[in-house]
Amino acid sequence: MRILYIGEIVGRAGVFALKKMLPAIKRDYRVDFTIGCADGVTGGAGVGKAHSVYLRKVGLEVATTGDCAFYKKDIVEQFPKAPWMLRPANYPQGVPGRGFRVFAVPPPQGQKAGSGAVAVIQLLGQSGFTRVHLANPFLALQDIIERVRRDLRDLGRKAVVLDFHAATTAEKRTMFAYADGLVSAVIGSHCRTLTADAAVSAKGTASITDAGRTGSLMSVGGMDAAARIREYLTGVPEWARDAVEGIELQGCLVETDDDGHAVSIETIRKRCEEVFHDRTGNSNEA
């Protein structure tokens, strides 16, 4: 199975890149299943109801979130209605939405058989977050893995992908070691910077510290750099607008065997050649 993970989609520029580029990428890489991080879709922090629906429309099978999962008010009532949306599983019991789910995968094009399933798990790290403090993700994974394995037992081709949304490299690397052999892939998100450490372990688990971002590369995390500079100079918080220069789609492609062991992982960087104009008239046109 070939599973595509789209690095954090940031702002309107990121959504634009996804819309314009995803169909060709899925075709060229023969993708069976697509996951994307939506934690910064709406204004760079969180995802609103309208965007959650649109991401599904343009081709994501699953949209994960992170520390900004509930930043937008209208997403609270949307989570229970949107089975393709995941929030971190280590939120307290009773919080709207789901932190993991098993998704059916259709058979490869032109075949009547060979369907399978992908279990996607979302967990939030504990280090470095000042507004969200959730339960221990390592302990949460113990229980989730057992439940997921039961659900996948008789479903043919299978894979388990863990999106670990964490702020520090140390916590991510520790999760890689802890989950090694338990899942098909551990993909780091949150830092919005594509790292160069993609690897497959001897036990068949693929990992990468961060899958990057989809949006403006010439920016601060996909947002306008000038506003971020003013924040550091003055100490006064400022809500930055989307950046538009150097738009890219970033992420990684994980290939697994029928038993869910990772065979390979490769990073993806594709520049958006389509012209994007923001609401103020700025564009990525050279």
Calculate the mean pLDDT score and round it: 93
What's the level 1 CATH class?
Alpha Beta
Distance between the termini: 38 Å
Q: Nearest-angstrom radius of gyration?
A: 18 Å
- N-to-C series of helices and strands: EEHEHEHEEHEHEEEEHEE
The portion of residues forming beta strands comes to 25-35%
Strands, helices and their partners?
Blueprint lengths: L1 E5 L1 E2 L1 H18 L4 E5 L11 H9 L4 E3 L10 H4 L21 E6 L10 E9 L12 H16 L4 E9 L3 H11 L5 E5 L9 E2 L5 E3 L4 E4 L8 H10 L12 E10 L5 E10 L15
Parallel strand pairs: 1-3, 2-11, 3-4, 6-7, 7-8, 8-10
Antiparallel strand pairs: 1-12, 5-6, 9-10, 11-12, 12-13
Written overview of the protein:
The chain is of the alpha/beta class and 286 residues long. The protein has a single domain, classed as 4-Layer Sandwich (Purple Acid Phosphatase, chain A, domain 2). Helix content is 24%, strand content 26%. Strands 1, 2, 3, 4, 11, 12 and 13 form a 7-stranded mixed sheet that branches. The protein has a 6-stranded mixed sheet with strand order 5-6-7-8-10-9, covered by helices on one side. The radius of gyration is 18 Å and the shape is globular.
